[in-house]
Design goal:
Blueprint: H1 12-38, H2 43-63, H3 65-80
């Protein structure tokens, strides 16, 4: 049987062991949790890159629309013949 302390709870060595296991488990969870949030990256940087890429594609499309349409039409006609 286990010893009881003055408060009627489990003896101190067992309580310390349980506390130690809980602390180690908590540290392990934190160790696993931190890397998940460490790779979040630079969100404003990615937004800027995405917006700039969309702007470049739109600008090139507006300038070269006729040439791109002609190129696509020739490619489709050459495959379908």
């Amino acid at each position: 049987m286990s010893e009881r302390d003055q408060t009627g709870g489990v003896a101190s060595p067992l309580r310390n062991a349980v506390r130690s296991v809980i602390e180690r488990f908590t540290r392990a969870l934190l160790w696993l949790y931190r890397p998940l949030h460490a790779d979040r990256g630079d969100v404003p940087g990615w937004v800027l890159v995405t917006v700039m890429t969309a702007g470049l594609v739109t600008g090139l499309w507006m300038i070269a629309d006729d040439q791109l349409t002609a190129l696509l039409t020739r490619a489709i006609n050459s495959v379908s013949k």
